[in-house]
Amino acid sequence: MRKAILSIVLALMLLVVFAVPIFAASSQDVTVTATPSFIAISNAPATWTINDLGTGTENGKGRILPNTTYYANPVDGDHDTTAPSSTVLDAECNFTITNTSTVAIDITVTWGDFTGGGADMTNSNAGTNGATTYGAYSWFSGDSYASKVIIQDTGSAVGKNALAATTDIKWGAEILTRTDAWTSGTSSATTAGEHLTITATQD
Question: What pTM was estimated for this model as a whole?
Answer without folding.
Answer: 0.83
